[in-house]
Design a protein that fits this description.
The chain is an alpha/beta fold. It folds into two domains: 1-106 and 261-360, Isopropylmalate Dehydrogenase; 119-257, Isopropylmalate Dehydrogenase, CATH 3.40.718.10. Helix content is 41%, strand content 20%. The chain contains twelve helices and 14 strands. A ten-stranded mixed β-sheet has the order 2-1-3-12-11-4-5-10-8-9, sandwiched between helices. Helix 1 links the parallel strand 1 (3-11) and strand 2. The longest helix has 18 residues, at 15-32. The structure holds 3-isopropylmalic acid (IPM) and magnesium ion (MG). 3-isopropylmalic acid is lined by residues 90, 93, 248, 279, 281.
């Protein structure tokens, strides 16, 4: 009986309440399959600052390094916004990604048919949308040196550096092409090669890597154009391969194609241990009110089964359970529309867990 050790990091804001729903799903899988899970909870983000004075304590670092996979809720909130930059909750998330060497961030934006009316775009534009953003996650302007705020000639100067090493581009490009091979075999690489040298190299290296993938169609797009095209005609995209910061921005845009930021899961892979988290933040304004959408987190659990535990069938089952509940008309507030049944976070979690029992 395979036992998986999962580090569970609920974090801040809505993190704990959405994580509770994800754990309900794990419990059903334990009951209905031969898998079992050892869950070890750790503190990260603001809650860790409150207890240990740092956002990513050694204890949590040890925990994630020993785990087979890491499940994360969300970090941050206004309470910690004025802290020194280096100990802010967001720093912990970047540190976690770096520690796990999880350089490949997969963010699938797929519209459930039931949510056709929930998107702010016209139904004919979003119907059937199925985009995978492959975002470089452990380099680029998020990590480049030098960085900081210094004083030069008596005035303050803010500095960040966009830097990509060839091997960093090569490895993420490979992930994108491999991913496309399991999908519709098209990669659009997004850069700003008309202005930024780091992305001139990006385009060059992606083109070189492509030589090993003749079955995949590759094209390049500038990021400003990509932002426009995602809103204009999203169905032209299969895999979007892009840098850390462009992926951050474009994946939020892609999320809205699916109806809500609360719908998008993610997998961060490439290192020894996979990290799974919703792409949304900790939403402190709605925390503790039982209104957050747990689907992004639940579907992140699905991705964990595919990418860390080699059980894609369980991701399919979870996806089916979500679909069933949406087809029955249940909606959290962010995706609610006239004529649908409004439910809270806990109820949505219960419904999906129950539906999953019949999908396994
Ligand atoms: C995301 C988030 C993070 C990022 C923040 C919270 C550091 O926006 O995962 O998209 O910028 O990567
Ligand atoms: Mg983001």
């Amino acid at each position: 009986m395979p036992v998986f050790n999962i580090a569970v990091l609920p974090g801040d804001g809505i993190g704990p309440e959405i994580m509770r729903q994800a754990l309900k799903v794990l419990r059903v899988i334990e009951k209905k399959t031969d898998l079992s899970f050892e869950l070890k909870e750790g503190l990260i983000g603001g809650c860790a600052i409150d207890k240990f004075g740092v956002p990513f304590p050694q204890e949590t670092q040890d925990l994630v390094l020993k785990a087979n996979a890491v499940l994360l809720g969300a970090v941050g909130g206004p309470k910690w916004d004025n802290l020194d930059f280096d100990i802010r909750p967001e720093k912990a998330l970047l540190g976690l990604r770096k520690l796990l060497e999880a350089f490949a961030n997969l963010r699938p934006a797929k519209l459930y048919d039931a949510l056709l009316g929930a998107s702010s775009l016209k139904p004919e534009v979003v119907q059937g949308v199925d985009v995978m953003v492959v975002r470089e996650l452990t380099s680029g302007i998020y990590f480049g040196e030098p960085r900081g705020i210094i004083v030069e000639n008596g005035e303050r100067v803010g500095i960040n550096t966009l830097k990509y090493r060839e091997h960093e581009i090569r490895r993420i490009a490979k992930v994108a092409f491999e991913t496309a091979r399991r999908r519709r075999k098209r990669v659009i690489s997004v850069d700003k090669a008309n202005v930024l040298e780091a992305t001139v190299l990006w385009r060059e290296v992606v083109t070189e890597v492509h030589k090993d993938y003749p079955d995949i169609e590759l094209s390049h797009m500038y990021v400003d154009n990509a932002a426009m095209q995602i809103i204009r005609w999203p169905k032209q995209f299969d895999v979007i391969l892009t840098t850390n910061i462009f992926g951050d921005i474009l994946s939020d845009a892609c999320a809205m194609l699916t109806g809500s930021l609360g719908m998008l899961p993610s997998a961060s892979i490439g290192g020894k241990t996979g990290l799974y988290e919703p792409i949304h933040g900790s939403a402190p304004d709605i925390a503790g009110q039982d209104i957050a959408n747990p689907i992004a987190t639940i579907n992140s659990v699905g991705m964990m089964f595919t990418y860390s535990f080699d059980r894609p069938d369980l991701e399919v089952a979870i996806d089916k359970a979500v679909q069933t509940v949406l087809n029955q008309g249940y909606r959290t507030k962010d995706i609610w529309e006239e004529g649908k049944t409004l439910v809270g976070t806990e109820k949505m979690g219960d419904l999906i867990a129950k539906a999953l029992e019949t999908c396994l």
